[in-house]
Amino acid sequence: MNPPNAVEVNRLLQRNYSLLIRGILLRLVIFGALCATPVILAKTGTWDSPVLALLSVAGVLGFVLMAYRFPFALLSLRRCRRVLKEYPLEFRQGMSRKSESRTKYGTVFTVRVKADERGRSPLLRAVDALERHRWPEGGEDGVWFAGDLPFGGVIVVPGSDTLLVVRPQDWDKFAPEREQADPARAERAKRTRLAQRVR
């Protein structure tokens, strides 16, 4: 399977940015409606009940959560762009999900990506770049990986165009390899922000 070319990578990034913006706009409409409905109903006298206040509270909480998570999604996409620009995409034979947990950043999946080289398939922490909670389908048949394993990278799931930001589950285990990396390799990881331990 041939790796996506530069045009396809740009299309992939544009599609994810578009999905992020559309998701934000949809939430703005929903949360705005939740906040506005009680006010409109109370003013028109159609329905006057303390229950209406709960709708406003839900709308406000939705806005707060969206405002909190949106910057993380934007930063994740920027990191994906840097990684895909710096590192070539390598095909891996498959990706399996070992576990998952919900955090304030979204769902964190623990995955294993198959590699041809023995001992190079460690457990990875994977987070959807758009902060979504659902597991991307299609990874079992193969995924594209860009990055440097001890530092982390980005997984592209074919078909769904899902971008997963990954790093070793056991970050400290790979510390010696990161420390022994040659200057060019370390600088490359620094440019893409992979050298930073996140989340």
- Rough outline: elongated
The percent range for strand residues is 15-25%
Sheet with most strands: strand arrangement: 1-5-6-7-4-3-2
Output the helix-strand order: HHEEEEEEEHH
A few lines on this structure:
This protein is of the alpha+beta class and 199 residues long.
Write the layout of secondary structure elements.
Blueprint: H1 6-44, H2 51-86, E1 90-92, E2 95-103, E3 106-113, E4 123-128, E5 143-148, E6 152-157, E7 162-168, H3 175-179, H4 183-191
Antiparallel strand pairs: 1-5, 2-3, 3-4, 4-7, 5-6, 6-7
Primary descriptors:
single chain; 199 residues; alpha+beta; elongated
Question: Can you give a write-up of this model?
Answer:
With 199 residues, this protein is of the alpha+beta class. The protein has helices spanning 6-44, 51-86, 175-179, 183-191, and strands at residues 90-92, 95-103, 106-113, 123-128, 143-148, 152-157, 162-168. A seven-stranded antiparallel β-sheet has the order 1-5-6-7-4-3-2, with helices on one face. A hairpin with a 2-residue loop joins β2 and β3 (106-113). α1 (6-44) runs antiparallel to α2. The longest helix is centred in the first third of the chain and has 39 residues, at 6-44. It is elongated and about 70 Å long. The chain starts with 5 loop residues before the first helix and ends in an 8-residue tail after the last helix. The mean pLDDT is 83.
